[in-house]
Specification:
Elements: H1 12-27, H2 32-40, H3 46-54, H4 73-85, H5 91-106, H6 109-120, E1 126-129, E2 145-149, E3 152-163, E4 170-176, E5 190-196, E6 202-206, E7 217-228, E8 232-233, H7 239-275, H8 287-315, H9 321-346, H10 361-366, H11 374-385
Parallel strand pairs: 1-4
Antiparallel strand pairs: 2-3, 3-7, 4-5, 5-8, 6-7
Helix pairs in contact: 1-4, 4-7, 5-6, 5-7, 7-8, 7-9, 8-9, 9-11
Bound molecules: flavin-adenine dinucleotide (FAD).
């Protein structure tokens, strides 16, 4: 269960609208063409990120007492959706939204001031590292290990696919403080550390990943990285529970990005379907085209309802695990259907990069795999909702 983040005084639609109007103020200045330019020149969209900070948007879901703008997961999901609607789904928002949760809930006042407050105005960026090459989806099989030193911890191991590692100031690292062989349950002996990316012993290797986002992915090596005691969030060995508290927020932010990118693709497809007339009538009048777009719209709307329903539950302090998992599953599938429909509608032009249609596909496809693959969500629903036996 989550502690309630706030008692909302306004209806859901108004809360979403407020955030999305403010976001449009930023995305109008920094549209998708700006992001594509940043990607081409391999630089982080610093100006847009700062503007999101100045508008108070990056501080959403962070209590005002922690230097944030208040609001809950509903508000930060609305931001994520609005960025997607502008064609700029942002992985940093997903990982920041996840990473801040355990620090706000279990960090000391100093840790919150150092690692959370500066993320709210965009002056500091936080990335998140759990995935390891050998463990993959089976995160508890991780082998990155932090051992005690006289004044803190020494970290050794590696992570992979870490989004934005080059541009981040800090990384929330999930590591073992006890080897898997030394604990009774694999969820034990896991700890969370906030690691300063400038610490000696950290090296990055850029991965050749093809997704049109400003954040690139890195393999990250930790070689005797010395961490101060203050890098540990909460109690040593109890990090798995803390991490789970952030995962629902992460899933909902991934769902939000999917909803946004799906609607973005659909809007482009509808525009095109109204103009294109190879047989003299707009192709959008043919049911083969129209119905596919209509179905994509219905699927996105249904996934959207589930996403905000889960976000409201989370903010109310209710258990939102099932709803968050369902939301991410449905939103990623709806986004993919919408992008597929947009590709089919554009015919051969979908493959011309200048139309910027095929370029949407990797992002939509990614959300079915990361931050957690859809099979794991189906496993959750199968086991925890339907009561079926665990298969793995
Ligand atoms: C662009 C990108 C950005 C990313 N950003 C980050 C990040 O910032 N931080 C981070 O820590 N990680 C990040 N990741 C990693 C991502 O979360 C993992 O790739 C993902 O969780 C899957 O792990 P894997 O690739 O090792 O797949 P594997 O574990 O090898 O699984 C492969 C496939 O097998 C199937 N499968 C696996 N286990 C099961 C099961 N139990 N039941 C049924 N089917 C199963 C699924 O279809 C799955 O897709 C990112 C990945 C990408 C591609």
């Amino acid at each position: 269960m989550n502690p309630p983040t706030q008692t909302p005084t306004e209806p859901l639609a108004a809360r979403i609208q407020q955030v999305q109007e403010a976001t449009r103020g930023v995305t109008a200045r920094y549209p998708r063409s700006y992001i594509l330019d940043c990607i081409k020149s391999d630089r982080f969209p610093e100006e847009m990120w700062k503007a999101l900070g100045e508008f108070g948007l990056l501080g959403l879901s962070v209590p005002e007492a922690c230097g944030g703008s208040g609001g809950g997961v509903v508000e930060i999901v609305a931001l994520g959706e609005a960025l997607g609607l502008a064609g700029i789904p942002t992985l940093f928002l997903v990982v920041t939204g996840l990473g801040r949760v355990p620090i706000i809930r279990h960090g000391t006042a100093e840790q919150i001031a150092q690692f959370v407050t500066p993320t709210c105005d965009g002056s500091m960026k936080l990335c998140f590292a759990i995935t390891e090459p050998d463990a993959g989806t089976n995160s508890f099989n991780m082998s990155t290990l932090a051992t005690r030193s006289e004044d803190g911890w020494i970290l050794n191991g590696q992570k992979v696919f870490i989004s934005g590692a080059r541009d981040a100031d800090y990384m929330l690292v999930v590591a073992r403080t006890q080897k898997a062989s030394e604990v009774k349950y694999r969820t034990e002996g896991i700890s969370l550390f906030v690691v300063d990316m400038k610490t000696p012993g950290i090296t990055l290797r850029l991965l050749n990943v093809q997704v049109e986002t400003a954040e690139r992915q890195y393999q990250v090596f930790f070689d005797d990285v010395r961490l101060p005691e203050a890098a540990l969030i909460g109690e040593a060995g109890k990090g798995a529970k803390l991490m789970f508290e952030g995962l629902n927020a992460e899933r909902l932010l991934a769902a939000a990005a999917a909803l946004g990118i799906g609607e973005y693709a659909l809007a482009k497809a509808v525009d095109y379907a109204k103009q294109r007339k190879p047989f003299g009538k707009p192709i959008g009048s043919y049911q083969a085209v129209q119905h596919r777009l209509a179905l994509a719209k219905a699927e996105l709307e249904a996934a959207r309802l589930m996403t905000y329903h889960a976000a409201e539950r989370f903010d109310a302090g209710e258990d939102a695990g099932t709803q968050a998992n369902m939301a991410k599953l449905l939103a990623s599938r709806a986004a993919l259907d919408a992008v597929e429909a947009a590709i089919q509608t554009h015919g051969g032009y979908a493959f011309d990069r200048d139309y910027d249609i095929i370029t949407l596909w990797p992002m939509a496809r990614l959300i079915a795999i990361a931050p957690v693959n859809n099979e794991m969500l189906l496993n959750y629903i199968g086991e925890h909702v339907l009561g079926l036996p665990k298969s793995y």
